């Protein structure tokens, strides 16, 4: 059974950094594309980053967000946070490459999310 659990969210000040962690289990880690997506209030899902052997970063957050992994966990390091980064952040296993252009809860396995709120 696939299980994904995100942590690291919270209330942060604009301009600061934050690391989100996703602990994952129940699948073959060596072959899994792992992604981070987010959803701001009243908006749709937005793909942010994916990693397998190579990291892929959305242009909208390139230079501020990075993705990395250890066996069993994937991380999203965010710097220079802005109020518009406030959202629920989700860890996703699988769903590549479709998740890049059209993230959907119907594709891949999704965690329950962790909320990040950036105060100005």
SSE diagram, text form:
Elements lengths: L2 E5 L2 E4 L4 E8 L8 E6 L5 E7 L3 E3 L7 E6 L2 E6 L8 E7 L4 H4 L7 E2 L3 E6 L1
Parallel strand pairs: 2-11
Antiparallel strand pairs: 1-3, 3-8, 4-5, 4-9, 5-6, 7-8, 9-10, 9-11
Query: Spans of 5+ residues with little confidence (pLDDT < 50)?
Result: none
Report the helical percentage: under 10%
Main beta sheet: 7 strands, mixed
Task: Give the termini distance in whole angstroms.
Answer: 40 Å
- H/E element order: EEEEEEEEEHEE
**Overall pLDDT, averaged?**
95
Sum up the overall morphology in one term: globular
Number of helices: 1
Structural class: mainly beta
**Beta-strand level of the residues, as a percent range?**
over 45%
Kindly state the number of beta strands: 11
Radius of gyration: 13 Å
Describe what this molecule looks like in 3D.
The protein is 3% helix and 50% strand. A hairpin with a 3-residue loop joins strand 5 and strand 6. The protein has one helix and eleven strands; from the N terminus they run βββββββββαββ. The protein is mainly beta. The model has no long low-confidence stretch (mean pLDDT 95).
Question: Which keywords apply here?
Answer:
7-stranded mixed β-sheet; 120 residues; mainly beta; 1 helix; 3% helix
Provide a short characterization of the protein structure:
This protein is mainly beta and 120 residues long. 3% of the residues lie in helices and 50% in strands.
């Amino acid at each position: 059974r696939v299980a994904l659990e995100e942590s690291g969210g919270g209330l942060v000040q604009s301009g600061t950094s934050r690391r989100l962690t996703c602990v994952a289990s129940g699948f073959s880690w060596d072959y899994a594309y792992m992604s981070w997506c987010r959803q701001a209030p009243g908006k749709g899902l937005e793909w942010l980053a994916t990693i397998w052997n190579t990291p892929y970063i959305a242009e909208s957050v390139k230079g501020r967000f990075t993705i990395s992994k250890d066996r069993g966990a994937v991380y999203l390091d965010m710097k220079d946070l802005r109020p518009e980064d406030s959202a629920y952040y989700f860890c996703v296993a699988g769903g590549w490459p479709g998740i890049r252009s059209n993230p959907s809860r119907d594709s891949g396995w999704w965690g329950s999310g962790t909320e990040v709120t950036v105060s100005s």
